[in-house]
């Protein structure tokens, strides 16, 4: 997610490069909206950023403000209708909105849309009518439902009604906005370019466009940027609960979150893992690329040589965030191939960031044994994932999580390893340099910082199953 306000710059191309730096956060669809102060245009499609955009499509997105998004679906299916930025508005203004996170009160927001429509407000739910089944479309509809109120006024009224994890970057014809939930679960940063301002999901996106980091957007803050400069409104008391899984896996290693470089945190996790779960072995290898920093740390701390035992196909996306299970399982074999001469006859320590469903590790251990590894010891730089995430990671149901209801030895047998060791929760948290009470570790502990509604009001397909009849797609 990326936004820029910069008169005199080619904001569409800068947004394109910013999204390129954030491609790891979503690979299903991509989109960019731009405004020249008179009209706002959106171009989006299914696919990677490099597949969706070319010189021709970018040249049509002219102006001084732009918002971009690359999608990883957590609410609503992976369809063109659900691509972002979402669009809404009326004769007074248009809004394009990009969202990173996941709302847990979508059912309540859907009812609010209907109530506002019944009360005579101009809900103008165009995205919903076209079949958009995301929480983002609901927020967009509610932002533009009252032509008598400015977007900023309506946002300050609406944001306190939202529950869950959300970092928003949105715009109208004249102003760029950014907002973050009171817990700050998903990252969002503010940067400066020579002629303006940039907001992005990660600092790595600032680096690629030559922007300097100013600060993080604070939890419970709304920022507005226009020709009068930058102004900030605090609409909620901050209660920081940043996602610890950003440090473990999601964020780029060259990103900084709350003053901690992610690569350094992951190396430290590897060092801690080596102290907590030592083993006699000949070689430490990572599961590339996500396990590489922790593997380096494990090798440094243990004194066991570090090596590259697996070759990664750079043109295969992250298997974890592929939109269905069939593609995940196929992607594992396409993605990694063992270097037989390196691993043959060796006792291996294989370091990875997490075990979620177990498919990757099971296939990996099998490949390494087939390639001649004498022993395979798996080390994981996060604790067992036993609970689903409702704040922006598609862990799905507990039944799909391999560690649910079974112990470490059972998981070890399931994946076929000689031994298995997970880092402790305390060791993982300490590596982030953050206070434990300011991190969300719900996927490991089952303790959710934002109370969840009943199960019938949760789920990726909630809005697809329960969309009101009069907001179903028009024939």
Automatic annotation (TrEMBL):
Its EC number is 2.4.2.14. Residues 1-228 form the Glutamine amidotransferase type-2 domain. Mg(2+) binds at residues 290, 352-353. The keyword Transport does not apply. Pathway: Purine metabolism; IMP biosynthesis via de novo pathway; N(1)-(5-phospho-D-ribosyl)glycinamide from 5-phospho-alpha-D-ribose 1-diphosphate: step 1/2. CDD domains: GPATase_N, PRTases_typeI. Its cofactor is [4Fe-4S] cluster; Mg(2+). Catalyzes the formation of phosphoribosylamine from phosphoribosylpyrophosphate (PRPP) and glutamine. In the C-terminal section; belongs to the purine/pyrimidine phosphoribosyltransferase family. This is Amidophosphoribosyltransferase. It comes from Nostocoides veronense.
């Amino acid at each position: 997610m990326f936004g820029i306000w910069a008169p005199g710059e080619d904001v569409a191309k800068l947004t394109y490069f910013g999204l390129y730096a954030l491609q790891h956060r979503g690979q299903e669809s991509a989109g960019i909206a731009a405004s020249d102060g008179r009209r706002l245009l959106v171009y989006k499609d299914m696919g990677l950023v490099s597949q969706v955009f070319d010189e021709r499509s970018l040249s049509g997105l002219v102006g001084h403000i732009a918002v971009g998004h690359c999608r990883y679906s957590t609410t609503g299916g992976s369809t063109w209708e659900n691509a972002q930025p979402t669009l809404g508005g009326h004769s007074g203004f248009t809004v394009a909105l990009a969202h990173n996170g996941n709302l847990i009160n979508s059912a309540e927001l859907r009812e609010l849309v209907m109530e506002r429509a019944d009360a005579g407000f101009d809900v103008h739910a165009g995205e919903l009518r076209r079949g958009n089944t995301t929480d983002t479309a609901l927020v967009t509809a509610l932002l533009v439902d009252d032509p008598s109120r400015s977007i900023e006024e309506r946002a300050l009224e609406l944001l306190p009604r939202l529950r869950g994890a959300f970092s928003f970057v949105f715009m109208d014809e004249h102003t760029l906005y950014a907002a973050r939930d009171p817990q700050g679960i998903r990252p969002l940063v503010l940067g400066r370019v020579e002629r303006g301002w940039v907001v992005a999901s990660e600092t790595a996106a600032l680096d690629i466009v030559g922007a300097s980091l100013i600060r993080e957007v604070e939890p419970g803050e709304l920022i507005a940027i226009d020709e009068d400069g930058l102004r900030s409104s605090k609409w909620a008391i901050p209660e920081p609960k940043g996602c610890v899984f950003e440090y473990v896996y999601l964020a780029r290693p060259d990103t900084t979150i709350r003053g901690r470089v992610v690569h350094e945190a992951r190396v430290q996790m590897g060092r801690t893992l080596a102290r907590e779960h030592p083993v006699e072995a000949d070689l430490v290898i990572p599961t590339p690329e996500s396990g590489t920093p922790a593997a380096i740390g494990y090798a440094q701390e243990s004194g066991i040589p570090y090596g590259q035992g697996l070759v990664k196909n750079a043109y295969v996306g992250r298997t974890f965030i592929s939109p269905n299970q069939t593609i995940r399982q196929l992607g594992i074999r396409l993605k990694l191939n063992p270097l037989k001469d390196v691993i043959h006859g060796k006792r291996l320590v294989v370091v990875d960031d997490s075990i979620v469903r177990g498919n990757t590790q099971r296939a990996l251990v099998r490949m390494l044994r087939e390639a001649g590894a004498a022993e395979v010891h798996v080390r994981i730089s996060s604790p067992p994932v036993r609970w689903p995430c409702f704040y922006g990671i598609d862990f799905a149901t507990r039944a799909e999580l391999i560690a649910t209801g079974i112990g470490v030895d059972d998981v070890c047998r399931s994946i076929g390893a000689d031994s298995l060791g997970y880092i402790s929760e305390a060791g993982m948290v300490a590596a982030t340099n953050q206070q434990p009470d300011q991190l969300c570790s719900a996927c490991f502990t089952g303790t959710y910082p934002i109370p969840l509604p009943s199960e019938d009001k949760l789920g990726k397909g909630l809005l697809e199953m329960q969309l009101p009849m009069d907001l179903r797609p028009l024939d």
